[in-house]
Design goal:
Number of helices of chain B: 13
Number of strands of chain B: 1
Order of helices and strands of chain A: EHEEEHEEHHHEHEHEEHEEEEEEEEEE
CATH superfamily of one domain in chain A: abc- transporter (atp binding component) like domain
CATH topology of one domain in chain A: Coagulation Factor XIII, Chain A, domain 1
Structural class of chain A: alpha/beta
Strand content of chain B: under 5%
Distance between the termini of chain A: 48 Å
Shape of chain A: globular
Helix content of chain B: 55-70%
Helix content of chain A: 10-25%
Order of helices and strands of chain B: HEHHHHHHHHHHHH
Structural class of chain B: mainly alpha
Radius of gyration of chain A: 27 Å
Oligomer: heterodimer
Strand content of chain A: 25-35%
C-alpha cells in the first residue's frame, strides 16, 4: 500500500500587485488595526483571479487559489502550465520559501528543492569548496558531502577544474556542478523546477535518467515542473495542469499533457485570409487551408490509414511573374516534433499561375492517433512569400481500421503501417 | 475507515499560513550547524581572495583608525584619555566597538543581501546572522591579539600606569553581550528592511552616531553631568567601559551598569529572534 508523501489542502496565496510604497504602509496599518480588534484581514477577500494578460482591477491577486492534491510516495508528479499559472509559487510554498495565505500542506519526509542549480555558489571559491557550500545549503551534512565528493565530481564531469574558482567555469559547467550536488542529496521528496533547460542535451538526458532512478528505483517522490513536455512525459507517471492559479486537471501524465497542450493550442478555426501571425513578403498568400476526407470538407478529425486530401487556396499578386514555385507542408505533433513533411518541390509538379488552389492527395495517411498541427511554407521565385506556423490543427482518431474489433492504441509511436501477416 | 491512522501520525512537517510566535525552530538551526561553519569559512576566505595582503587587512583597519583617533581626538581636540596612553585607550575602544558595528551592519542587511539564496532554497534563516556573528568573532580575535600585543608593549616599555585586573575574566561575557546586541538589533532592522528600505539609510549613519553616544573616544568620567544619563542609557556604554576598565584599569566599573546592559541584550535578542522568525516566512513576497 502506498502512503501519501505530500497532501496539499486548500492552499491559496495572495500577492499584492504593483509596487511596495506608501500604499503598503497604509495597508499594513489598516491590517494591523483589524488584527488587534480580532477582525479578519480586510485584504483577503478582494483578490482576483490571476490572469496576467488581463489588466488588473484589484490591487491583490490570487497566485494560487484552493489547490488540493496528493502525491503518493514514489510517485513522479509533473506540474505543467503556462507562464504565470502558479507552478513556481506552489513549489516555493512546498519548499518553505514563502508560506501560503490559507490552507495547509502535510509532508511526510525530508524535502530537497531544486528551484535553481548552484544556489549559494561563490564565484571566488573553488569547485570543491562550492560543492561543500551548496551541499550544506541544501541540507547535507559535511560528512555526507565528503563521502559523495568523488561521485559528485564524476557526475558533473569537471574533475579537471575542481580546484579552480567557479568564476572561471563556463555557465554549463556551473549548472552541471550544481545539479550534480543536488542529485546526490538523498531526500525522500525531490522538487525540481525548470532547471534542466540550461545544460546540453547529453547532460539533460543524464539528469532525467538520474531523476528517474531516484523515483522508480529508490522509491522517492519527485515533483517536476518543466515546459519541456518530452522530459515531463519521460520522467513523470502522473501530473497536474495549472491555469491562472487553479488546478484544472489531475491524472495520468499523458492525459495531463494532452489537456495542457490542447488548452495552449490555437483550437479556433483560423481565418487564413486575415491571419496576421505570418512571415514572408506576401506575394503569394494562403487564403484557406483544409483537409477533406471522402466528400467531407474542413475535417479536423482524421481517420488514420485512410485517404486524405489537403487543399491550399491562395492569392497571387498579379504583378508577380512566377519563375519558381514551391509549397512545403510540415506536420508537427504536440511536442513540436516534426513527424511528416511533404512538398511540391520533390515531386514533378508544374505550377499553373491561373489556378487558385492546389490539392495534395495523400493515399494512406498513416499517422497514429494524436493531436497535430501544420506549418505551411511558400516560396515564390526563391523568396519566402508566406510562412504559417502551428496552423491547421487536426487530430487523428482511433479507428478499427484493421477490422479486428480492436482500436489502435495511443502513444505507440508516431506511424502506422498497412500490413498483412501470413503463416509460412 | 482506518484512513485516519494509516498516515496521519507520520507527518514529518506541516506547512501552515501561521505558526506560533515562539516556535523558533532552534532544533532546525542545530541541524544546519555545518552550514553555519561553511558560511563562516566562505566569509573568511572569499573576503580576502585576490588581495595581496589577505587577512592583514583585519589588522590594518584598526591600526589606522586608532592612529586617526589619536591624532584627531587626542592631539587636536585634546579629549581626555583618563591618563592612559592615547593609542592604548583608543585601541581598546575601537577593538570592541568594531566587533559590534561590523556585526550589526552586516546582520541588518541579512534579508536584502541574501534574497537570491533565500528565494531559492530553505534553511533556517537564523543561520546567516549567526554566521555573521561568528565570523565577526574571528576578526575580533585577530584585532584583539593586536591589542594584547600593544598592551604588553606598554606594560613593559613605559612607566605609565596600565593595570589589567581580575575583571579581564569578564571579557567573554562582554563579547557575548556585544554579539547579542548586534544580533538582536540587526535582526530587527533587517526584518523591517524587507519591506521598507528606509531603514538601510538609518543604519549607515545611525551606527556612526551611536559610536559618539558610546564611550569609545572618551571616558564616561569625562562627560558633563547632563549628558551622562544619555550615555549611560546606551546599553553599549556599560560593555565598552567595562572592557576598558578590565584591561587598562581606568574608568569606572559598576555591576549595575553591566546588569542593565545584560537585561537590555536579553530582551532585544528575544524580540529580534521572534520578529526575524515571523518575517522569515514571507519576506520573499515583499523584499
Amino acid at each position: 500500500m502506498s502512503t501519501i508523501a505530500i497532501k496539499v489542502e486548500n492552499v491559496s496565496k495572495l500577492y499584492r500587485l504593483g509596487q511596495v510604497g506608501t500604499g503598503t504602509l497604509k495597508n499594513d496599518i489598516n491590517r494591523f488595526w483589524h488584527k488587534i480588534r480580532g477582525k479578519e484581514d480586510p485584504y483577503l477577500k478582494i483578490g482576483q483571479i490571476n490572469d496576467r494578460t488581463q489588466k488588473a482591477e484589484s490591487e491583490f491577486a490570487w497566485a494560487l487559489k484552493d489547490i488540493n492534491f496528493e502525491v503518493k510516495q514514489g510517485e513522479a508528479l509533473g506540474i505543467v502550465g503556462r507562464n504565470g499559472a502558479g507552478k513556481s509559487t506552489l513549489l516555493k510554498i512546498l519548499s518553505k520559501i514563502t508560506s501560503p495565505t490559507t490552507g495547509q500542506i502535510h509532508i511526510n519526509g525530508r524535502i530537497a528543492s531544486l528551484l535553481e542549480v548552484g544556489t549559494g555558489f561563490h564565484p571566488d571559491l573553488s569547485g570543491r569548496e562550492n560543492i561543500f557550500m551548496n551541499g550544506a545549503i541544501l541540507g547535507m551534512k559535511k560528512w555526507e558531502i565528503q563521502q559523495k565528493l568523488d561521485e559528485i565530481v564524476d557526475f558533473a564531469g569537471v574533475a579537471a577544474y575542481v580546484d579552480t574558482p567557479v568564476k572561471r567555469y563556463s555557465s554549463g559547467m556551473i549548472v552541471r556542478l550544481g545539479f550534480a550536488v543536488a542529485a546526490h542529496l538523498e531526500p525522500e521528496i525531490l522538487i525540481v523546477d525548470e532547471v534542466l533547460a540550461v545544460g546540453d542535451a547529453e547532460f539533460q538526458k543524464k539528469c532525467i535518467g538520474k531523476m528517474q532512478d531516484v523515483s522508480t528505483n529508490q522509491g522517492r517522490t519527485v515533483l517536476f515542473v518543466s515546459h519541456n513536455m518530452a522530459a515531463v512525459k519521460n520522467l513523470c507517471t502522473s501530473g497536474v495542469v495549472m491555469m491562472n492559479g487553479h488546478l484544472t486537471y489531475q491524472g495520468k501524465i499523458e492525459e495531463v499533457i494532452d489537456r495542457y497542450l490542447s488548452t495552449s493550442r490555437n483550437t479556433n478555426q483560423i481565418e487564413y485570409a486575415n491571419y496576421t501571425e505570418r512571415k514572408g513578403n506576401g506575394s503569394l498568400k494562403i487564403t484557406d487551408a483544409f483537409f477533406s476526407q471522402k466528400a467531407e470538407k474542413h475535417v479536423t478529425q482524421i481517420v488514420s490509414l485512410s485517404k486524405l486530401d489537403l487543399t491550399l487556396e491562395y492569392d497571387l499578386s498579379p504583378e508577380i511573374k512566377v519563375k519558381s514555385f514551391r509549397i512545403d507542408v510540415g506536420i508537427n505533433d504536440l511536442y513540436g516534433v516534426r513527424v511528416a513533411w511533404f512538398s511540391t518541390w520533390n515531386v514533378n509538379f508544374v505550377f499553373d499561375s491561373s489556378s487558385k488552389s492546389i490539392l495534395f492527395e495523400i493515399d494512406n495517411f498513416n499517422l497514429s492517433p494524436g493531436e497535430y498541427t501544420c506549418n505551411i511554407f511558400c516560396l515564390v521565385n526563391e523568396e519566402v512569400s508566406d510562412w504559417l506556423e502551428a496552423v491547421l490543427p487536426f487530430s487523428v482518431i482511433e479507428t478499427d481500421y484493421y477490422n479486428s474489433g480492436k482500436i489502435i492504441p495511443k502513444n505507440q509511436g508516431g506511424l502506422l503501417f498497412n500490413y498483412t501477416i501470413k503463416n509460412q | 475507515m482506518n484512513q485516519q491512522n494509516k498516515y496521519s501520525p507520520t507527518w514529518t512537517e506541516i506547512i501552515q499560513p501561521k505558526r506560533s510566535l515562539f516556535d523558533l525552530r532552534l532544533k532546525d538551526v542545530w541541524n544546519y550547524k555545518d552550514l553555519l561553519f561553511m558560511f563562516v569559512k566562505r566569509d573568511f576566505v572569499a573576503n580576502y581572495k585576490q588581495t595581496i595582503l589577505g587577512p592583514l587587512w583585519f589588522i590594518i583597519q584598526p591600526v589606522l583608525t586608532t592612529l586617526m583617533f589619536t591624532v584627531v581626538f587626542g592631539n587636536f581636540a585634546k579629549i581626555s584619555t583618563d591618563g592612559q596612553p592615547k593609542i592604548l585607550f583608543y585601541m581598546a575602544g575601537v577593538t570592541i566597538w568594531n566587533y559590534f558595528s561590523d556585526s550589526f551592519n552586516r546582520t541588518s542587511s541579512v534579508f536584502t543581501a541574501n534574497a537570491s539564496i533565500f528565494g531559492k532554497v530553505y534553511f533556517p534563516r537564523l543561520i546567516v546572522p549567526l554566521s555573521i556573528i561568528v565570523s565577526g568573532l574571528i576578526k575580533f580575535s585577530i584585532q584583539f591579539a593586536l591589542f594584547i600585543g600593544t598592551l604588553t608593549y606598554f606594560l613593559f616599555k613605559s612607566n605609565i600606569s596600565v593595570h589589567p585586573n581580575i575583571y579581564v575574566l569578564l571579557t567573554p561575557l562582554l563579547l557575548l553581550l556585544m554579539a547579542g546586541l548586534a544580533l538582536g538589533a540587526g535582526m530587527i532592522i533587517s526584518s523591517m528592511t524587507t519591506k521598507y528600505r528606509d531603514f538601510t539609510y538609518l543604519v549607515t549613519f545611525g551606527v556612526t552616531l551611536l559610536m559618539y553616544a558610546t564611550p569609545v573616544i572618551y571616558p564616561i568620567a569625562f562627560l558633563p553631568i547632563k549628558y551622562k544619563s544619555i550615555v549611560m542609557a546606551n546599553p553599549l556604554s556599560g560593555i565598552v567601559e567595562t572592557f576598558r576598565y578590565a584591561w587598562l584599569g581606568s574608568g569606572t566599573f559598576s555591576w549595575q551598569l553591566l546588569g542593565y546592559s545584560s537585561c537590555f541584550v536579553i530582551i532585544l535578542l528575544i524580540l529580534g529572534i521572534v520578529i526575524f522568525n515571523k518575517v522569515e516566512k514571507n519576506f520573499m513576497d515583499t523584499v
